[in-house]
Amino acid sequence: METKEVFINGLGLIGSSLARAIKKRNPEIIITAADTNKNTLKYAISNKIIDKVVENLENIKTADIIILATPVDQIIKMLHELSKLQLKSGAIITDVGSTKQAILKAAEELVQPSVTFIGGHPMAGSHESGIAAGRADLFANAFYFLVPLKTKNKQIKELQSLLQETNVKWFEIEADTHDKLVGQISHLPHIIAATLVNRTENEFADSKLGMELAAGGFKSTTRIASSDPAMWSAILKTNTTILIDQLAKYQQQLSEVQEALSNGDQEQLYNLFFQAKNSRDKLN
Questions:
Q1: Containing structural domain, residue 143
Q2: Sequential pLDDT tens for the chain (284 residues)
Q3: Are 59 and 135 part of one and the same domain?
Q4: Are residues 38 and 163 in the same domain?
Q5: 199 with 144, same domain?
Q6: pTM score
Q7: What is the H or E stretch that residue 179 is in?
Q8: Which GO BP terms, alphabetically (predicted)?
């Protein structure tokens, strides 16, 4: 099926970047969109990121591909709404949510046989948010997870073709494996960064000197603490079981560091940094 019309719900950093990438390679495709922020929609129209604003879900019935690019809780709510509509035959629905088990469960409500749901998650982003921060090359060389509800290779290839300009590395994965993986390498680091900033702010509550003197190490470690609070609280809410387990393991390792400090165990402290350096250097 030739893609002629795409509907995007949510024109924040991710949604607007996808829209830009689609338009860059396929300017003839009509992109319609919805967003709770009217200023965002005005920006999208004036900058030719989208072609039309959708104010009623009835108007998305002509869309070939529907992209849900809102926080996870809103994606789940939208899937419930879409399940009540008679969508275009052959339509593909996908999302960009950071957890997948809860979303795929909600997608099971889509009983229209000619409609395909493909869970998606581009592993790219920024501590900045909003439509003005979006760009067509945001996802370049990043992994883009695909979690199909039911494997349909034709529809997967169609989605990949639409998003070809993103230049991502496609990776199919099971929902539970995905949530455990991103819990460790994405969600947990966001929790750690946020708590480190808050702990430091509390530590120097009586003096601004500490935060004012924060330099490269602190800033680079906590950069992601500037991420959108609404989005991240919604993400964590749908991955609680996995995160509780990962937090417990992390707290255990912190306890071991505390014990090593108390015992003056320099060897253990050395091994902590040696192992971390070897692992981190492999990412460069």
A1: 5-173
A2: 677 999 999 999 999 999 999 999 999 999 999 999 999 999 999 999 999 999 888 889 999 999 999 999 999 999 999 999 999 999 999 999 999 999 999 999 998 888 999 999 999 866 677 899 999 999 999 999 999 887 678 999 999 999 999 999 999 999 999 999 999 999 999 999 999 999 998 988 887 677 777 778 889 899 999 888 988 898 899 999 999 999 999 999 999 999 999 999 999 999 999 999 999 999 87
A3: yes
A4: yes
A5: no
A6: 0.88
A7: helix 175-182
A8: tyrosine biosynthetic process
